[in-house]
Specification:
- With 174 residues, this protein is of the alpha/beta class.
- It has six helices and seven strands.
- It has a single domain, classed as Ribonuclease H-like superfamily/Ribonuclease H (Nucleotidyltransferase, domain 5).
- Helix 1 packs parallel to helix 3.
- The chain is globular, with a radius of gyration of 16 Å.
Length: 174
């Protein structure tokens, strides 16, 4: 296994990323396309992949791990019907082109059928992430979907997914 692992939660507007070294998460963030690149979809994708390449070069040697769309899954229904799945597949293809050493996970492979809030809570309870400001433990709400109180999520969901993908790759499970 490589020393550095860069995990990517791809999107055309907000790409979440998480970087770990020797099984320890060290950095995370969001990549946005530059303001002047918002003209066309292709320019946005090129700008995003250029920014990912910059992250890779800064932390060489590195293993790139990314989520790829699963258009057959039930959870991807809205993305499939709205056409967003094509954009995700396009950006995923461009990420593949960055390096020959890319490992991929579909959403089902890295988090299974877990709802977003359950996956987030699992990450929060894992030792490496307890001190991160993923949720506000003092701001609790009642979830009608599952009938349980949850702390309010304060970290961007794209970063949380990138951390989850990284965790799955490093530790083998969520």
């Amino acid at each position: 296994m490589r020393k550095y692992i860069l995990s990517i939660d791809p999107s055309i507007n907000n790409v979440g990323w998480a970087l770990s070294k020797n099984k320890k998460l060290i950095k995370w963030g969001i990549i946005h396309p530059s303001k002047d690149k918002k003209e066309t979809y292709l320019k946005k994708c090129r700008d995003v992949t250029d920014q990912i390449t910059t992250l890779l070069v800064a932390q060489y040697p590195i293993q790139l791990v990314t989520e790829i769309p699963d258009h057959f899954g039930d959870s991807g229904y809205m993305a499939r019907e709205s056409g967003a799945i094509l954009k995700l597949a396009f950006i995923a293809g461009m990420i593949f082109n960055i390096t020959d050493n890319v490992i991929t996970y579909t959403p089902n492979q890295w988090k299974g059928q877990l709802p977003k809030h359950v996956m987030t809570m699992r990450l929060c309870k894992n030792e490496p992430y307890k001190s991160m400001k993923i949720v506000d433990w003092k701001d609790v709400y009642f979830c009608k979907e599952c009938g349980v109180k949850h702390p309010r999520v304060i970290m961007d969901h794209n970063i949380i997914d990138a951390i989850g993908i990284n965790h799955k790759h490093v530790w083998g499970k969520l």
